[in-house]
Design a protein that fits this description.
Layout lengths: L4 H20 L10 E2 L1 E3 L6 H8 L2 E2 L2 H9 L1 E5 L4 H4 L20 H10 L4 E7 L28 H11 L3 E6 L12 H18 L5 E4 L16 H11 L4 E4 L5 E2 L14 E2 L7 H10 L11 H6 L2 E4 L2 E6 L17 H9 L6 E6 L10 H18 L11 E3 L3 E6 L6 E8 L7 E10 L2 E8 L6 E8 L3 E9 L3 E9 L5
Parallel strand pairs: 1-3, 4-5, 4-13, 5-6, 6-7, 7-8, 9-12, 12-13
Antiparallel strand pairs: 2-11, 10-11, 14-21, 15-20, 16-19, 16-21, 17-18, 17-20
Helix pairs in contact: 5-6, 7-8
Amino acid sequence: MLITFNDIQMRKVTYVILSLSIILSGCSQRANTYFEKELTFPDFVTSDQKVKLAAYVVPNKHQYEWQQMELTAFIHFGINTFTGKEWGEGNEDPELFNPTDFDAEQWVTSLQNAGFKMIVLTAKHHDGFCLWPTETTNHSVASSSWRNGNGDVVNEVRDACEKYNMKFGIYLSPWDRNAESYGDSPAYNDFFVQQLTELLTNYGEINEIWFDGANGEGPNGKVQEYNWQRFYHVIDSLQPSAVKAIMGNDIRWVGNENGLGRETEWSVTPLQPNISDAIINENIRLNITTTSEDLGSSILIEESNSVYWYPSEVDVSIRPGWFYHEEENQQVKTLNELVDIYFQSVGMNSVLLLNVPPDKRGRIYELDVERLNQFGTYISNTFSNDKLTDGDAYWKARSGDSKEYNVIPGETINTIMLQEDILKGQRVEKFSVEGFINDKWIVLTEGTTIGYKRLLRFPDISPAKLRLTVYETRDIANIQKFGAYYAPKL
């Protein structure tokens, strides 16, 4: 039997309508009533129904696996490492690139020991210098004397990641200050696709592909127009398991480079990256950008035409700069700063992308390694010791429901962790946690969204019990984990 494209589209529409009918009729706990990654609202649904339906948008398999990593690392390494610049000009001599003791395994083991699950390497930054021997340009490691011109940073990092079971991602700058074709949009897009194809074909499995939206004038004075849809097609065809970040439609930039998530961080949002006129116009209509404070409130969803599972990634550098600078060796973030960043990223329903730039030797500097070890030990020790006896009990909560949990007798706590089962959507809008002390319930902390993970801190206390109250939720909330911990003072 011949199945046409129109037949497939009709089946998709029929499925959506049937699923909507099941959810809106109140039989919402039946199987197969979730919408992976996106949902476009039919014209017939009301504003209130849009909010309820948004509770059934869930991550796809690759987004979920990405969220579970929690800690990922950015590696900014390239020609800027040797010139002392943050943004290169594109006219640097490739001979400047000459790490004296390059050791990708040291990068991977240093980060893995600290609990990081993936490395995202800057295969090409804005200067256009390529860390692999590309056929697209002479501005690459092949034109340097490092490894006698036979070096390949991408390959060595990829091999180290495979050896130690670390996931691997790439950053490929769309802006290229060296490429003569930049600004001649069709020609440069061909050039960029060739680079992307090389990286996605020759280096095994790629888990994350990171694009920023950097754009400038080319040598011809023209602004480049990127063909994002074409780039997406290349990625989806060559690396279908990879998540597309920032200018991609799988992972969203949090909106700052300071390691700060939002107090209210929704993974379900009408926001999408500005890759087409239709999306740009819709974002303008809703008055939302990546830096907006409100990206998922009920009021915003009521006004939207579509919603997406588009979770937040928080990027920040362990140093003031993104590339290594010797003068910053004594400005590595303190353990206290890194722990605060963890609570404000992973602890606010995001994944942390911490930049750790290798030095001119091609190694992560000793103080950076020491700080990573301190950070990994602190997080591991703190969250491996749950003070509750029954926090793993799965709980389905309606608005206004409360549940009590037992604290191990005599234990002191100052931190709580909450997790929703996001495979059944993100739903909690407001909650509080109370402690039972001297025969009275005392409010310890409260919050809005939970999502994959929410961490909250408060002064040391030794309650007999804790009580979690879900004040507001979009449909039934699925609480997967409630934990209590003691985080040592720093």
